[in-house]
Structure prediction request, 417 residues.
Amino acid sequence: MRHMTAAVLCIGTELTRGEIVNTNATWLSGSLTGLGFEVTEVECVDDDRARIQSTLARMRSNHEVIVATGGLGPTTDDITSECAAAVLDVPLERHAESLAAIRKRMERFGRTMATSNEKQADFPKGATVLPNRKGTAPGFAIQLPRARAFFLPGVPREMKTMFGELVAPEIEPLVEERLVQVRLKTFGMTESGVNDRLAGMEDEHNVVIGYRAHFPEIEVKLVARSASHEEAERRARGAANEVRERLGPDTVYGEGDVTFSEALGALLEERGWRLGLGESCTGGQVAALLTERSGASAYFAGGVVSYANTIKQEVLGVPPALIESKGAVSSEVARAMAEGARRLLGVDITLALTGIAGPTGGTPEKPVGLVHYAVATADGTSDRQMVWPGSRAQVQRISAFAGLALIRSVLLHGHQK
Prediction:
């Protein structure tokens, strides 16, 4: 059975110069894959007529669907409609309904329509106009020799709405095969280690396994195709279950878009526990991870960034003699920080971290990258230590994740020696 291929084309000099991040390409590729298309090309070109036209001319022969974004605005560098018309070898025509809608939208916001906005209602002759209820720039669709091509605004909020409401319903019936993808989120193993642990699974379950490294996590993607959605779902789920078994619950922490902190939060909520922090070398990054999405107030109380030893002593209650004898970067101080934070914050469980993020401050006995962790509960305190390679930012980020992993381990297994 032949796979239906799709291409994504993002137009704009601000993209090719790196002035803005091209999130549209990532979102569209994922959405098209989710519909069952094989996305085989993602291209980004500047606002140049020759390059836009040559890219469209090439894509039209290789794909069933093209989704393009950008270049539909009112300024002189917005030339997408003109380029599409040139590829079709047809003139532009003004669409009266779109012009009226643009004028009405601007009047609703107390603005007067400028002459330059009129060009946003010009489309290649014979194009299907795609209304934009989130902005002023309509999109359009045209039929090329092989491909159905859709042109959407570059503003992500507008583009996503139009794709979901107008594009996806039209192109989904083109897909003969159903595609099901399961994405498992992991932390604690290298990409090569995960790959080796899953050897032989693709043939066993008739799936394709892909990996995405997003430091310090690894995402495992299991893709199954079948004429039946149910069969594709069965194979993908069967493979996902075996991945969980092979890697174990300490490595696989969630599925889909869930973050590590959200998965940990769900465990805390199940117990009705509140979490507190005593951070040092991470400088508040654990708190930032826990609060990056709404809902953290259900399980996260707060924390102390005890960067200076005086704060460790005066706020968290770490004995000065302990710091003097063992050093601020030690398992003993990490444990005292965690226990002090638990008393101070009145929570059920606390995490403390102290280390040397670098690039300076290391010694032969305590090198750059050394981090001590401790988690305290009413039942006791667990501690770990690691020496992490990498830059200061990398050491801080992986330390924050490793701290969350220790909390998760204590929740799942209790305190381990």
The chain has 15 helices and 17 strands. The mean pLDDT is 94. The chain has three domains: 5-174, 178-255, 260-413. Residues 176 and 227 are 6 Å apart (CA to CA).
